[in-house]
Amino acid sequence: MLELRGVCADYGGVPALKEVSFGVGQGELTAIVGPNGAGKSTLFKTISGVVPVSAGSIRFEGRELTGVPAAQRAHLGIAHVPEGRQVFPSLTVLENLEMGAYTQPGQRAWRANIERIYNWFPVLATRAKSLAGSLSGGQQQMLAIARGLASSPKLLMLDEPSMGLAPSIADEIFERIVSIHGQSGLTVLLVEQRVAEALHFAKRGYVLEAGSVVLSGSHDELMRDDRIRQAYLGM
Question: The pTM is what?
Answer without folding.
Answer: 0.94
